[in-house]
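Ticket #4471: structure export looks truncated?
Reporter: QA, pipeline team
Priority: medium

Steps to reproduce: submit the single chain below to the structure queue and open the exported record.
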Amino acid sequence: MRDYCIRTATPEDLDGARAVMLDTVYRDFGTGYVPRWHGDIIDPAAAYLGSARHTLLVAVDPVEADVVATAALDSRGPAYPPNPRHVAERFPSGRTAQLRRVYVRPEHRRRGLARRLVEELTAFAEADGGYRAVYLHTDPSVPGAEGFWRSLGKVVHDEREEPGGGQGIMHFEIPMGK
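Actual output as written to the record:
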């Protein structure tokens, strides 16, 4: 079993992190790069490295020394719209740590990387002292996403249950102190 190095991203890691993220949105999501959703992917330094309350973690393969997984956190709560109003009100910006870009290359999945990354992010949120909740949303059509997030958190809203199915997104709260 490989002993992956999980660490805060450095400027030298950003090209590898960006590649993991872009590959994921094209391969797993099928959307490709959409500027209004993915601006942080193009400029992760501005999104995650410029604020003490934000972070970008990477997992590095010890054999190849490549970035093989990412996970980020910022202080922006979900916006209304496109998210449901009650979700945006429950998770306000500034007091909400939003998990983003928890992506693992397919050949490195099922090794506990995503879980370890999320544990590090929740510890970061707890240490900050200003966050009151950890939130994320996911597309349950991505294989494994729904089961993984259900194993870590609580569903606070499933848009598939709305008339018309909303955006089909699931909204989760991840416990702090877990």
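Status: closed, not a bug. The export was complete when the record was re-opened. Leaving a note from the reviewer for reference: Residues 113-128 form the longest helix (16 residues).
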